[in-house]
Inverse folding.
């Protein structure tokens, strides 16, 4: 039987039960949630008779079209956003339920093995940082080589006519020399940063190996729990990205709606 712990509310909870930080507890939400102008977008759509449309200023007609297009897009994307948020909440609840069930079944091995899986996560992040630093260093080396080539070309131009100093070539040489110095500094910074993150990555990998040896039994027993957690984390990240994308689309459509409405008011004031 799994060991029991007293929860803050007095309920006895299996030791392997899902901790609050395992999954997020709310759907990501954009700060832009209100319709422009304080009301629904449909309320500002203008219904005109055919004769009135013929008499409209072309600029007004164009802005009305923009207004209606933005309104339709807002309504459509907000429906998709509501569905995406509902799906996110459902997966979140399902993941919490399944992880709690798995944790209750496996017991204390989950907490014992948690440092190993946390070390693996940190090692993966360190490896990604090392790769980024390597790319930055390679770019810095390329820029340094290109700047040195510019200096060589400028020097050849300056030396082409020893009897007369061409100010154009001299200016180019000065500029190229400055670029070489800047590129050299960037190259050295990139080299130091790459060395630093490489050391951190090696330390993180060493910790993973050490924990794997000392916690081998707990790691093997708790593997189903952490594999399930990783699967749900990936799924939730994908749905979170979809929610964020739809929120941005709504915000952009509302911005276009507000711009069209403002332009329409300005045109009417001028007519």
């Amino acid at each position: 039987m799994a060991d029991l712990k007293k929860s803050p509310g007095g309920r006895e909870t299996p030791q392997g039960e899902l901790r609050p930080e395992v999954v997020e507890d709310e759907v990501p939400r954009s700060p832009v949630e209100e319709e422009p102008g304080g009301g629904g977008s449909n309320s500002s759509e203008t219904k005109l008779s055919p004769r009135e449309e013929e008499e409209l200023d072309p600029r007004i007609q164009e802005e009305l079209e923009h207004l209606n297009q933005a309104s339709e897009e807002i309504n459509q994307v907000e429906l998709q956003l509501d569905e995406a948020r509902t799906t996110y909440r459902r997966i979140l609840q399902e993941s919490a339920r399944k992880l709690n069930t798995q944790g209750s079944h496996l017991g204390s091995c989950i907490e014992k093995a948690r440092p190993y899986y946390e070390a693996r996560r940190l090692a993966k992040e360190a490896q990604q940082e090392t790769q980024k630093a390597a790319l930055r260093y390679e770019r810095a080396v390329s820029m340094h080589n290109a700047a040195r080539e510019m200096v060589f070309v400028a020097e050849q131009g300056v030396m082409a006519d020893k009897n007369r100093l061409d100010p154009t070539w001299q200016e180019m040489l000065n500029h190229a020399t400055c670029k070489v110095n800047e590129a050299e500094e960037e190259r050295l910074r990139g080299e130091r940063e790459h060395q630093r993150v490489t050391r951190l990555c090696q330390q993180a990998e060493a910790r993973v190996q050490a924990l794997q040896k000392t916690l081998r039994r707990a790691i093997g027993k708790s593997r189903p729990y952490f594999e399930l957690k990783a699967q749900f984390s990936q799924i939730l990240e994908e749905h979170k990205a979809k929610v964020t994308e739809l929120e941005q689309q709504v915000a952009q459509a509302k911005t276009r709606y507000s711009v069209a409405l403002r332009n329409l008011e300005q045109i009417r004031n001028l007519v």
Observations:
- The CA atoms of residues 4 and 15 lie 5 Å apart.
- The two ends are 81 Å apart (CA to CA).
- The domain at 55-270 is CATH 1.20.1270 (Substrate Binding Domain Of Dnak; Chain:A; Domain 2).
- Helices lie at 50-55, 58-106, 109-160, 167-214, 216-270.
